[in-house]
Every structure is written in C-alpha cells, then in structure tokens.
Amino acid sequence: MAHDVNVAEFGKVAVLLGGCSAERPVSLKSGTAVHQALVNEGVDAHCFDPAETPLAELKTQGFDRVFIALHGRGGEDGVMQGALEWLGIPYTGSRVLGSALAMDKIRTKQIWQSMDLPTAGYRIIAEPLDEAEAADVLAALSGAVIVKPACEGSSIGMAKATTAAQLTAAVADALKYDPQVLVERWIEGDEFTVAILGDEALPVVQMRTPHEFYDYDAKYQSQSTEYFCPCGLSEADEKALQVYAKEAFDAVSAEGWGRVDAMRDDHGQWHLLEVNTVPGMTEKSLVPMAAKAKGLSFSELVVRILAQAKV
C-alpha cells in the first residue's frame, strides 16, 4: 500500500450516497465505487443512503467519520455539511460555506469577478423571458449563450441558445429547476478540468465531445466523449490554468478536494466555469483520471480524501 495512512485510525466509516437530488443515480455509482475502494484498503466502510435512513442513525450506529459522495442539492450545497457539524462527525471535503457558494454558479461567478479571475459574461434571469427580452440578452452576450440553472449539477437543465425562441424555451426549462438562471456567453473552444487534492492542483484533463457541450449524456452515457491526460497544453499553459483553478477553488472557500472546470477560447483566453466540491467518482470520472496521472490509484485517492476528513 503506497499511502502512509493507518486506515485503522479511520474507525467506522459511512459513505453517504444516493440522496434525494436530481443527481441521485450518479451519486449511487460514485458512492458504490468509493465504498468498494475503502473496503479493499481494509477500511470498516458502510454505504449509507440518507434518503432511506435518518441521518441521526450515523450517531446511533457509531460512525466515526463520513465520506460524502452525494452530488447536488442536500449533499453538495452545505446542508449535509451543516448537519454533520451539528452531529459532531468528521466529514470529507468543503465546509458549509464553501459547499454552499460553489453550488451556486451565480455567486461563484460574482466572487471570481470581484477578484479579477477570468470568467465569461453573463446575465441573471429570475422569470420567464418574452422574445424581445430574449433578443436583448442574446445581443448583449454576443449572440450565443448557454443557459444553466444556478444550483444544479451534472449539466442538468442546461441548453445552448442562438435564437430568441430557443432562449425563451431554455430559460423556461431551467426555471423548473431553480428560481434563478445563469445565462452565460457561449465560449467556442476547448474544455478542461483541474482536480484539486489538498493544496495541490493535479494534472489537467481535456474533454472532447461531439455533443454541443459537455452535457449529462456526454458525462455519463456517451461512448464518444474523449479524455486527454496529458491534456495537450504547453507546460506554461497547463501551469497557468492550474494556478487559476487553485485561486478559483480557494476564492469560494472550497477545501479538501474538488474540481474546477474551465474553457480556453479561440483567442487563447481562459474562462473559469464552475467549482465542483463533490465531483463524480465513477469509472468515467475525471478526478481519478487526474490522480492516476499523478501516480495515485483510485483506492489511494479515496483514502487520501478520507484522511483529510474533519469536523
């Protein structure tokens, strides 16, 4: 075993998975993979689905620490983090504030803007648009946009729009998920992601998909999505992106581990997209890929994350 962690010190570990969010199916896959890796490393780990078992059972059943593998609302947004702090049980990843901020794409962008970190122009929409309003938004954002619910993950509720009719429909759909919608200028270019582990930015991964953007299907179902690590950037460009990613991660008070997504446009400019504080940990996931490029196996990565758990 390459890591220098005594797994017996972890005690009884709950892997939180499933939950009630729109990302439940992905969380079940992530949590199952994490649980299996921990068991393989000799950890006394158990799956725990808060949608099926009251959270107070964590105390009743004597769990010593928690690995959060919940994606989306209720698991990644500060709610679960606050509950675990109230219970006094150490947990992985970002604290309440970092989780809540990173989950909110609008607040994240506002913080980045205030710190002069590069991110695409946007508008915040809180009610349905008529076509005249939609045309004005499109004109202000260079004619092509991507619409995102403010607090959903896994690209749920996202759509591209290049006409007023498309934009009104996309906003109406996104408002089903969230009371606020982010309408962001469409970036034409390559998409990258930077995994953060502790205080370190891991090797950059590039994603390529024949889809219009890296959507839910491209992430979890498509066989045509390609991943590159090494990412194809020059050493200087990769380093620059890693620095931006770590600054972006720290800016929203994220900690422990996570992932920062970014794009580079056709003019070579970087645009930060979002922070994921509980990224996917499935067989197709990006953080394990980056860790592997750094020489860490999936099991070593999982143990390293669990070792950072605190209350």
Beta-strand percent range: 15-25%
Q: Which percent bin holds the helix content?
A: 25-40%
pLDDT averaged residue by residue = 93
Task: Please tell me what the overall shape is.
Answer: globular
Q: Count the strands? A: 13
Structural class: alpha+beta
Question: What keyword list fits this structure?
Answer:
single chain; 311 residues; alpha+beta; Rossmann fold; D-amino Acid Aminotransferase, Chain A, domain 1; Dna Ligase, domain 1; 3 domains; six-stranded antiparallel beta sheet; four-stranded antiparallel beta sheet; 13 strands; 35% helix; Dala_Dala_lig_C; metal ion binding; ligase
Brief rundown of the structure:
The protein contains 11 helices and 13 strands. The chain has helices at 24-40, 57-60, 79-87, 96-103, 105-114, 131-140, 164-174, 216-220, 235-251, 286-293, 298-307; strands at 12-16, 44-48, 65-68, 122-125, 145-149, 159-161, 181-185, 189-197, 200-201, 205-208, 226-228, 257-265, 270-276. Residues 109-307 form the ATP-grasp domain.
Q: Which helices and strands, and how do they pair?
A:
Blueprint: E1 12-16, H1 24-40, E2 44-48, H2 57-60, E3 65-68, H3 79-87, H4 96-103, H5 105-114, E4 122-125, H6 131-140, E5 145-149, E6 159-161, H7 164-174, E7 181-185, E8 189-197, E9 200-201, E10 205-208, H8 216-220, E11 226-228, H9 235-251, E12 257-265, E13 270-276, H10 286-293, H11 298-307
Parallel strand pairs: 1-2, 1-3
Antiparallel strand pairs: 4-7, 5-6, 5-7, 8-9, 8-10, 8-12, 10-11, 12-13
Helix pairs in contact: 1-11, 6-7
